[in-house]
Specification:
The complex is a heterodimer of chains A (438) and B (508). Chain A is mainly beta. Chain A contains four helices and 23 strands. In chain B, helix 8 runs parallel beside helix 10 and helix 10 runs parallel beside helix 13. The chains are: A mainly beta (438), B alpha/beta (508).
Amino acid sequence: MVSGNRWSRFGTVALLGVAMLASSSVLAGGFAIHEKGAKATGMGGAFTALADDPSAMYYNPAGLADNDKLVVMAGVTLIPYFSSFEGANPYPGQGYKADFKTQIFFPPHIYIAAPIAKGFNIALGIWSPYGLSTAWEDPDTFAGRFLSQRVDLRTFAIGLQGSYAVTDWLSIGAGPELRIGDVKLQRNIPVFNPFTDRFVDAAHVDIVGDGFQSALSWAAGIQLKPCPRLKIGASYHGAVDIDFKGNSTFYPLNTGNAQLNGVLASRLPFNVAVPTQTTVQFPGLLQMGVSYAFTERLTAELDADYTNWDVFDQTVLHFDTVDNKPVPQSVLVHNWENSWTFRGGLDYRVSKGFNLNAGLLIDTTPQPDTDVSPLLPDANRTGVSIGFGLKMGESTTVELSNLALFFHKRTTLTNRDNFNGTYKTFADLITFNLRHTF
Amino acid sequence: MKKSTFGRTAAALALAAAFGASALPSQAQQADFTTYVALGDSLTAGFTDGCWVKHGQIDSYVAIIARQAGAADFQQPLLDEPGVGSGVGAGKGCLVLQSLAPAFTRKVSDPKPLNLTLARPYNNLAVPGYNIHDVTTTKAAVQNSNPLTDLVLRGLGGGTTALQQAASLRPTFVTVFIGNNDVLGAATSGTVIDGVTLTPAAPFTTDINTIAQTLKAAQGGTGKGIFFTVPDVASIPFTSTIPPFIVVGGQPVINPATGAPFTYLSSRNNNSAIAPIPANSLLTLNAAGFLPSGFGIPCAVLNAGGVPATSPLRTNCDKPLPDSAIAAAGIPGVVLYPEEVSLLRSRTAEYNFAIVAAATANGYKVFNVGSYFDDLKANGREFGGMTVTTSFLSGGLFSYDGVHPTSLGYAIFADEIIRFINDNYGNNIPRPNLSPFFFNGNAQSGGYPLSAFPLTPVETIAWGAEIFNSEMWAAQRQFHPLTRSFGLTLGEDAHPITGARVFLDRTD
């Protein structure tokens, strides 16, 4: 793992433009984002075997081995995202309802692929492999505000890959990936007011990462072409832990009682920066796929992805002691399980320069019922996608796809914090990109 | 790797087919709440903050169970505000917290029954102060000198016991939580006299058998209901809040001669030599009335700490804390010596043996309150980031009297019992919604609106500051800050506890 300043600076500068634009997301199995190109997304993300555009950097690095021209591909995925919650007894209780703030995320992707020699290609790219944002409406009164009012986790991968056609039926590709990320958490802290026998808000805490932190990972892929119509691919992106450093600021809230306010002020380091550390574990992703060209026009692909989410077991927030007022560490237990995603996609060439895509995906959640919480309510998902690619002139292609992602209704009655109820979520992903060949 | 949901479902279906429905309690075995009757003492009556009043009664744990189970016409001996506390008159009613020092006042105590004319026995027949023998034998207040008796029994049927009234209702479901006062009276008075303040095991066993057999007969020969065991008296804030050793700034004062903390001084049975109490003694909350004026504190410790000659702590230093009650002076005992604690514990174990035997022999389920309280004390409970503990004042589970739960504490207990019923009887009673109990507080119930007692900022709150330590909002539940900090403060920046008086003369 690398977290040196030089890398950070490089990452920060390189990403300044996109990071300013990009927000985070919550899509694809836990908090993974699988949408890295319009064609791939139009095919339900089943693209590991085909991998025939520069988004292969994510789907399968080996797919670029045969690239024979300088190609630039850039785009963005717009993700309107809707989530609502209905409470269950004993807490926050039947009849309680809350909604996410309606947010639109737009993780970007940029790839440059260049042939160095015949059968040998290098590529540089930036994409957003993981992201998370849950922001609740009316955070000051939201019943889960003592668990989470808002969390934002943004990550980017900067990849540099080489790919090589070993023979005409075997290609390989690999390279390092710098992962950078940024995190923010917000919540309120309760206190029992013995004068009124009720829980009241004692403080609001903002935990803000100190800019982007980084760690080094890698990716590798292999592609087989046993016969002209058949392709088999597999790829892997490594697991990585990113150590986040930042500051927590505790803001006092009026408990309604002067004595209680005084006691809290004597106990909590209010209005000062409290250095805070945590580590987030990001899983490894294994993608496997088979594609078959039934006709010259129609190609189909089936994929299975396996993510070792079991690395995401807990998040521990460590707070330094400031003003001799210690804040105990906070442990969020996740205990996620490894998960599978199954994808199927079609690519149909209507005419020269005009392709249509369609796809379907089934994504199983890695999150156990005990961890389904206001911080991150995940669920199994079914997705349906369509898309098209249109060539504009000799060297430019415009691609657009839409993936409707239906989160299955998720009910937990065994949440570890006794915050129980049902979450309903829907997201729509609109991926757009331009591809230009020089 | 995720297990196949389909596989699990298929396996479950296969199992269900193989065993049929017989593996689960059938409809006929489910608890029937058509006529639900509760027997008990103050804990079942909904006593809270040292008083018995409507805002506690309507959320007694049995009332919550009845509500959730849809029990028809569940009647209680409701008492209108301000309720009754210890005796009748000004300053004898519900406790009101005045400051985190802590300091309490009491409202007026004024019994105003709201449901006295009900022509039949109440469903909640619990009487505050009742011991087990009251349940089987007491028909009127003249017998047990407990005026609250008549508010519940009302001479119905020409004078009947709570047990007889319960039986007369032909209950379809009963809960019996009795025996607390048989051991608690000795603890709260700090005076353990077997056969006087402490009920011996033999008569307890006779009474619990009578209760179980009588109820079973009234239920048509099949016991349907729950008997509760008696919790450890050391598990309540009343006995677990003030440590037996002298504490300054949250740290025990160490005796350089022994390397161990200085403990307070007392005199065994009020008639032995004055000596430091053993470190495993328990002090009751009533000790808070003695410590500020120096009772129990060696003068030498004050000298070593540089406490000025004008300090109120000097008034009574070297004098013993009362071990046993001095009735003539109205002084409670405040020390439970280790041998007293172990007698109370072993007696509690004997009661519980008798309760389990009587209950199971007559077909009743047993809910182990001792384990539940121990678990609460060790782990607390968390709901949506709010951690409730058994800590006095700061924990949320126990009310100002240190013995009885808050409405929140009762509601969490009711939730536990409902799950127990569902698990044991195959019912599907909905769990209660706890949100109102977390956020509405006692003001909502007609209790203590903030404006009732104007408060001024206090620059240092010696013990209040200790109880609200920063660990409260951690997910860590093992802390009991009060046990470290309820003591006196010494030294230059000392803020001696002033006016810290908890009056608790048998309000249970």
